[in-house]
Batch of 2 targets.
Target 1
Amino acid sequence: MKFGGTSVADIDRIHNVARKVQKEVAAGHEVAVVVSAMSGVTNQLVDYVGKISPLYDAREYDVVVSTGEQVTTGLLALALQQLGIGARSFQSWQLPIRTDSAHGRARIAEIGTEGIVRAMHAGEVCIVPGFQGVSEEGRTTTLGRGGSDTSAVALAAALRADRCDIYTDVDGVYTTDPRITSRARKLAMVTYEEMLEMASLGSKVLQTRSVELAMNHRVPVQVLSSFEEAAGSALPGTMVVDEEEIMAKGLEQSVVSGIAYAKDDVKITVDGVADRPGVAAALFGPLAAANINVDMIVQNVSHDKRTDITFTVGRADLPRAQAELEKARGVIGFEGLKIDPDVAKVSVIGVGMRSHAGVALIMFETLAAKGINIEVISTSEIKISVLIGAEYTELAVRALHSAYGLDSA
Amino acid sequence: MKFGGTSVADIDRIHNVARKVQKEVAAGHEVAVVVSAMSGVTNQLVDYVGKISPLYDAREYDVVVSTGEQVTTGLLALALQQLGIGARSFQSWQLPIRTDSAHGRARIAEIGTEGIVRAMHAGEVCIVPGFQGVSEEGRTTTLGRGGSDTSAVALAAALRADRCDIYTDVDGVYTTDPRITSRARKLAMVTYEEMLEMASLGSKVLQTRSVELAMNHRVPVQVLSSFEEAAGSALPGTMVVDEEEIMAKGLEQSVVSGIAYAKDDVKITVDGVADRPGVAAALFGPLAAANINVDMIVQNVSHDKRTDITFTVGRADLPRAQAELEKARGVIGFEGLKIDPDVAKVSVIGVGMRSHAGVALIMFETLAAKGINIEVISTSEIKISVLIGAEYTELAVRALHSAYGLDSA
């Protein structure tokens, strides 16, 4: 069971979490719990570090910002003991949760489970801090913001857990953002691949890395709410599982599982570049060197040996991208840059489209019928994304949600 | 160097601490620093624990309340790096600071210094959290409130440091409380034994345990202010050292070093107890069993086989002491209890009184001359304490300060 910062934000909520753990114990499960820091605490610590030293040593940053999770582990252990449940905390150096030495964004290499297994066999619930680990050199590391989901999945994998329940402030994964259409439905099941696309498209239910890890180790993950009580049912959230598992359940597999959207990108058009071999490398080489992620790319048909190249980058990377392109202008030889920040990426996602033709056509026809112009298209095996004017986002999402038969009755 | 909670209360003060460390480094010293939690932080954490579970597991209490010091170690390391000084933190499990398993009030058994010595030789300042340790079982322990002084002295002993500088919010040890008389003088040196008496008498400059430890390991301790800048001089505080060291310096040893007072005790008189063997045991046995510390004791001359016994206990222990005595009334067989909360203990302290007669007489004469009645007397080798009416405290302290020649010119 993993509980995020809002789920453990104060003493009352920690007691609430303890009651949720109590139910699982009462149901006969052996439980390990991963907790985040009380919400606001990590921000406060990061703020201290920024104020003390703008160019900080990531090793000491990790020493400071990892303390919030430690506090929560102790408090939850106490709350469980208060309910008469045996419980103890394990810090990352005690297990250990071994990571590489990339402080501030470390990756988990291995988790020692001997202590946890022994405590579990003695009837104790084990509480482990998310987000933190310990390097080969024996120093405290952190996994980067939101790393607690990854900690939980890694621990579930190491323990060969039957399930990894991620408690959050939403009660599952929806066919689309319920704030955009009241017809959005909660999915009972979704595949790792679909979840991965949703996560990377800005649907922030789970950290992308945690989904990758769950997929690689085939850890069944459940997303559910820590605030709403399920009316009796055993699995009230959304299960993120292997495709075969969904098929084995004999569930009707819809072609499209969900509609995602993201407004994190801006569109850059480079006008009048020479249409010759090597020009794409000249253009995208400097961006890659500057660690700027380029997402959708389209190159126009050439006129008079000159062409336009359009692509998207993250909004936060725009100033750096512009600077890099201007620096390389002599080598690339373009006529001008056009920036359009008012764009949105809308995607339809579904493993079913692998075996179904015509999924893209429905998308294009639906958007055309609403008079929405498609600026860029990109596709993967299980996803079709289009770039459109930001103002059409909600209209497009609603129309596609209906067109693919996702609307609730 | 050890810095308490008020010295590291915010980011500005942590930068100030870093500059003090910088000066020592510039003077050619190898420095290890022990820090407390930012002031208020530990209280907040203790409060969380109390709210979550009134009857808490001390092992998890320690997990929670030890985090404040960890935060400060990282922040101070960063502040030093910002000044161009190599610095790193070591948590107690990294050294380790090995303690017994008495969670919440653990005692330090041993400190591993290998890591610190190696880092020092590499030119790094080492920052260590006060107050915390790790048990033989590998669990986090704390030393009890105020334990950071003890951590600092223990680390200084383990490193065979030339000096342990305890930075606090006063600039040294005074002949008496400067709030009572402006003629109080800062002592350049004081012996461990005297410091121990002062500490146990409520002069809260240093924790009693840290002084005991310094005495046992002959660690020279300096008490000095983290807020006032010394005008150039090398040792601006008070040195707490061995008696021989003071003599070796050829300093004039005054007979009395200081006048201390405490208002922490209440006086209990047990009236009309039988004057027979075993009655004192019957009286004080139940108090000892209830872990109530009895300080001064006086027994009156017997009349008609009955006598009165007067003693003092800590103010906080009074309700429990009364309850224990009433429970044991049948066995003790007393007529009544008289409680006087309006008392103060005033003490004159000095190793010089070992070799000087008449020190007590000066005290009694001085108090008599001011019309102050002495209710109880107790003495040790280097201390004479009297219990007087609380309202006379300031009058008595000022008169004694003059009588023993301690007034500044």
Note: The two ends of chain B are 32 Å apart (CA to CA).
Target 2
Amino acid sequence: AEIKKIAVVAGDGIGPEVVAEAIKVMRKTEELFGLQFEFEHGLFGGIAIDERGTPLPQDTLDMCKGSDAVLLGAVGGPKWDNNPKELRPETGLLGIRKALGLFSNIRPAVVFDCLKDASTLKPEVLEGTDLIVIRELTGGIYFGEKFRREGAHGQEAIDTCVYNVAEIERIVRQGFEVAQKRSKRLASVDKANVLETSRLWRETVNRIAPEYPDVELEHVLVDNCAMQLLRRPSSFDVIVTENMFGDILSDEAAMLTGSIGMLSSASLGEGSFGLYEPVHGSAPDIAGQGIANPIATILSVALMYRLTFGYEEAATAIETAVKNVLDAGHRTGDIAVDKSKAIGTTAMGDLIVAAI
Amino acid sequence: AEIKKIAVVAGDGIGPEVVAEAIKVMRKTEELFGLQFEFEHGLFGGIAIDERGTPLPQDTLDMCKGSDAVLLGAVGGPKWDNNPKELRPETGLLGIRKALGLFSNIRPAVVFDCLKDASTLKPEVLEGTDLIVIRELTGGIYFGEKFRREGAHGQEAIDTCVYNVAEIERIVRQGFEVAQKRSKRLASVDKANVLETSRLWRETVNRIAPEYPDVELEHVLVDNCAMQLLRRPSSFDVIVTENMFGDILSDEAAMLTGSIGMLSSASLGEGSFGLYEPVHGSAPDIAGQGIANPIATILSVALMYRLTFGYEEAATAIETAVKNVLDAGHRTGDIAVDKSKAIGTTAMGDLIVAAI
Ligand SMILES: CC(C)[C@H](C(=O)O)[C@@H](O)C(=O)O
Ligand SMILES: CC(C)[C@H](C(=O)O)[C@@H](O)C(=O)O
């Protein structure tokens, strides 16, 4: 196959450790499926702040722009938490999303058999839960004008939430399209009883809905959605929502599966380009110990194969390998019941590579 | 005791039914505790739209302003869902909050012994959960300027989130004060890594925190809070947050207790004035059938006694009566395990009145 360029931004904490295993998996699929990857590494997040004085150096951004897909580890840590805004890892994250036009964040929330008991939800409630949250990622209150001013009652802070029809339409269409490939149910989440942006959102959803007659659409208010995710998680298929609501609901959905250490994510723009990363964070407390769970990152590679490259067979092979290794009882510390039998990051990566 | 004026806005759906039981309870406490109430009724919500062409008629508002406390049932229903904004029940709700200066919404999320199993969370996770969400209610993105305009990419909608230091300080102080009376733990929830309003919020919290040295303070990002509520609900004591985040998190917290039909709420302004209402909605599907559960509204009266009037003894008497009636096995349909043994709204009200 054509050589695909992968920009690797491993980031902070356990980022480099889990990314290394994901790359091993990619190398293995090169042999087996006749794929070819070229990896380039760039500084990003806290480490970029330390070494370059900015969380998103221009050469890292250029490298990403010149690539076919980006593999991200994780960013952040207490070291940078009290930095001014421009010197914070999250600012790099927001910057890379905007600069690469990654308007769609796709987060599958699935339950792993071996982790059913890790959820705080009752197993019978969780049964059959398999949903995807599609979050708008480059608009809304995250990117609107923000400032301070002196007001009549002391200092005031302002954030602006802005959405235009085109921004809403492209993410909502993606929601419908993903739903069409799954169980054909789409929940559009907004706060149309209060927000003007939500009213425009809902009008737009209703306007394009007739083009997807096979998809069953429901409008859910964000507060109600936060409740329904708890009450009937398995009734959701695809959830599409704006940036801030998606931030909250995708984390709630991830947590209720009990599988947060295992969940992958994709951030997509126009065309097939995408950025792939595990949902979990940089876990500074266990960084450098070789005990982090690489599965979420490895599953993010499967997402990349499927969504960016159309390597369906190789994607499925990775997912099956992960499943088989788990079924055989292998566990990293975070998901082990008997912690004394836990294996390390590299061992887990090796087992998955061997199982492909 | 001095005569207290209670403005009653029963609203729509089951509102009038549950409010009637709450008033019966108040009458009973008049005799027993030497209290005196004068009730005035006003139109509000959908019924006010139907009869007066506005969800919040001026005379209703004047009546509330002239009262010592407001007892609200519930508003809304499918009948008005597609109305233009000015003719929607929610608009009345937002209007009354603003007009009465009710900047603080207090929502206890407690687990009722008899409803432990109704939660979708595992009992061992829920064990000991007893938290209060304090939500800022008259600021933020709910009340900032909202408008549409033509932009380069079609129509645009804008919502503005605004907070000034004074608004943040008064709600946060209330958080600290409520925490001081409880387990002395306060979680302040924001999105300071993204929003300017959240950064001002966090600065303000940190500035006044030294005045409450006995309270243990943690800052929690809103997405993380949505997760932690699921993972460790019992570790929270008091949560204080801004309007939009509070809307989402208070509903999530209510749902995880499994007791949503039983939860009360208070909305407070400066001084002792307050508006009290059940957390549940107007339940149009069961309205008029005499089967609604009046307990949340009755418990809202207990909150009113405690927070507005300082009638501690009578408040406790109501709460104890509710507990005793439940312990004796009486249930309305929504909380009955054996639905055939369920009792109606009036019967439940009578039992509680008798138990006081
Ligand atoms: C770190 C933060 C800026 C980011 C966000 O809010 O988008 C994170 O929570 C996420 O969901 O990727
Ligand atoms: C009906 C709606 C406007 C309201 C809100 O969002 O505040 C409701 O959800 C609530 O929490 O009281």
Note: Residues 105-263 of chain B form a domain with the Isopropylmalate Dehydrogenase fold (CATH 3.40.718.10).
